[in-house]
Sequence to fold (335 residues):
Amino acid sequence: MTQSRKLIMTQYGEDFAACTKIVDAEIGEPGPGEVLIRNVYAGVNGVYDLNMVRDAVSYISYTPPTDLGIEVVGRIEKLGPGVDNFAVGDSIATWKVGAGYRDYQVAETSRLYKVPAASPEILCLMPTGISGMVGIEQVGEMTTGETIAISAAAGGLGHIIVQVAKKAGNHVIGICGSDDKAESLRSIGCDRVINYRTEAVGDVLKQEYPGGIDIAYDSVGGAIFDAFVDNLAVKGRLVISGYTSEVGKPWEQVTSPRIYQKLYFRSASVRAFINPHFEEFHPDAAQRLIGMYQRDEIEVFVDPVEFIGLEDVPAAVEHLLSGKNLGKVVVKLET
Fold:
């Protein structure tokens, strides 16, 4: 048995910190086709984390007590019987609900990806970068020469989509909420940056892009979603991968014409995307992203605020939900 700790949800509620605690956990020996992993860095998925404790994940209910955290990069410390495609010491990336906010985990090799290093940058690419690449390519049906707008563009997801879209030969509009984030987006190739705190997104899109937006990629919702719908081009596609502006708040009651009145005469569409429904595209996206990173063809933003140990997870979640982050928020688990 390996002595470990993990963060669990103890009750439902609106306050993530108040609904969670760290407990001891014994990790058993890896069985056939399994390995023991030392989690080195955990990625923070603040919206999903909060929705778990709020019992607001729409397609599944997690009953307390339940384990928390999803994505990690780590190091293999022990092999189970019959494992011959991995070795002790290999760096890996993996993700599964309940396996992230803990010191160790036993995992099936079928859900592991070998990576160059167990670093925060690789953690951003896998699976966050995979989500961005698969979402824009498979759901958004991105081609080249298109006009693409991305909300939360300086976040862990958004800044990867910006670069994937740019490298495909598109005009990219990044939306963010500060001058520092705007400067970072310009540094990775954004053609137009809109700071929504100083400019009205809808007005900018209408005035500067009268032909409309071919693809809008939205993880914010609310007024940003409305601006995107109003400014889609003929055959434009709006990809929804979240709605952070309304998480943990009462649903806004919207009284307006139904959405088909805005979409029909433009043959435009709104499409939703969550990663588990597109797993067949993950291996290819992972391979391409790692290759791009190793060739210095993509820059990875890791939020500069440091969080260390399971004790810092609630603060990391709060930091992400505040919208103050620049890039991927991570927690260092191995100290």
